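Team,

Forwarding the record for the chain on the shared tracking sheet. I've put the sequence and predicted structure together so nobody has to dig through attachments.
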Amino acid sequence: MSNDRLKMIETMLETNPKDSFLHYAAALEHHKNGDIVTAIKTIKGIIKNDPDYLASYYQLGKLLEERGKVEEAIDIYKQGRSVAKKQNDMKTLGEISEALMLLDVYED
């Protein structure tokens, strides 16, 4: 089922190659399929091309943590926290702040 979803998303990306949501959905499917490297690469691409796509920061941080790249995850969370503040998105700001606290990062 997940492979079918990924194929469908990839087909949609052919006609909408700049759609951040579709790239994000593809990254989640890659992760579900066990391809965390492609998931990370895909989300890094989203952040590069659409730095205001806020959900990417939390998800990338979690993926990096999963790979044991804690310092890189902290940097990504901090970037995401800045974007969340800029967008005044308190829900995401809270989620990212909690992720940082779980990593013993408490600075503002």
